[in-house]
Amino acid sequence: MDLIKKLQQQLQALDDKQLIRKRRTVDSPCGPRVSVEGRELLAFCSNDYLGLANHRKIKLALQEGAAIYGVGSGASHLISGHVRAHAMLEERLAEFVGAHLEAPRAISFSTGYMANLAVITGLAAGDKEAEIFSEELNHASLIDGVRLARVKAHIYPHADLEALAKLLAGSQAATKIVVTDSVFSMDGNLAPLPQLLALCEQHNAWLVVDDAHGFGTLGEKGHGALEHFSLRSPYLVYMGTLGKAAGVAGAFVAAHEAVIETLIQKSRPYIFTTAAPPAMAHALLTSLDLLEGDEGATRRAHLQTLVAQLDDGLRLERWRRLPSTTAIQPVVIGDNAETMRAGAALYQQGLWVGAIRPPTVAPGTARLRVTLSAGHSSMEVAKLIGALNALERDLK
Fold it and tell me: What would the pLDDT profile of 236-274 be if each residue is shown by its tens digit?
């Protein structure tokens, strides 16, 4: 009982600081309009950036995949779980982003978290003298990948190219790995990928790019941050997630074929995990076609229109909207308690917006993380704008 009491005290301490996290149960498909525990809400907290999670064509493809391949894969990829659907998806993904890579090949994973653990530990595997250079605001999965690699790691300040250049110049490691988000998940801004790549090429370092929030939304064809910046290099190792803009589930890593074969042989998160359901891979083939086609382009254009509308409509004085041209539109409030009150007030008005507090963000920077979707209408975004402008005044 002493152990339970200790946990209860720790939980109470979190609650006292307004840091307790709570789940809400959704009773409807993912989308901008959802049913949550008996209430109909307008959701501005999902990463379904293009509104594809409930797309009819993808749902039909998932049903077809289940009819062809069944439900489970039954084993890891290296035993008997690598089904034809997985192979077809990996070939399609390599083609999807391959224009930006040398000798491109792709490997699929069940989650983006797993993919990031795999790529960082895999690149550093067997080289105790390797060094990793990680962006200050990287996602938790990248941070954990760096920790699990068990090699020397450097954290460089957010978007500080000069600091990174000095670190790389001072390193004698034969294997150098620079790791960064493309779109930072809590700020919505983009990493300076062209300059980062130039540094990596100059210092013979890998550039691992986590494009979780850029894949599908950035670039003319939705090919992501590499297309957005028109990058191409054999030094690039690209991770994209398939449960956000792509609307389904999973993730992948694309890079030179030697990198991918190394991950297959050395990455424990890949080797020792049951493969994802093949029906998901089958559905993702349809999703990729939508992303690349006219419908994807139309949805991306509408999303940018909504981003501009929010930027133009917010009239904040105490709170601060961070500069972002992506679907992630943070409104920094600062105080944990006020952020929670703001989130609760919006919820009472039928607007579901994520209230983000430490340790996800730095102390004193608690925020409302507004995420826009191509599934939102301009009238719905106008409703959110009006609510935020009024709420900032009312909570003084």
Answer: 999 999 999 999 999 999 999 999 999 999 999 999 999
Evaluate whether the domain defined by 19-48+294-394 bears CATH number 3.90.1150.10.
Answer: yes
Q: What SS3 class is residue 120?
A: helix
Q: Give CATH for domain 56-292.
A: 3.40.640.10
Q: Which tokens belong to 204?
A: 């013979």
Domain residue extents for the chain:
19-48+294-394, 56-292
Please give the single-letter amino acid code of residue 159.
Answer: A
Strand order in the sheet with 131-135: 104-109, 251-256, 236-241, 205-210, 176-181, 131-135, 152-156
- Hey, how many other C-beta atoms are within 10 angstroms of the C-beta on 94? 20
pLDDT tens sequence across 50-87: 999 999 999 999 999 999 999 999 999 999 999 999 99
Contact 237, 209 (CB under 8 A): yes
CB 182 within 8 A of CB 210: yes
Q: Which residues contact 56 (CB under 8 A, 6 or more apart)?
A: none
Q: Give CA separation, 16 vs 13, 195, 226, 383, in Å.
A: 5, 43, 43, 32
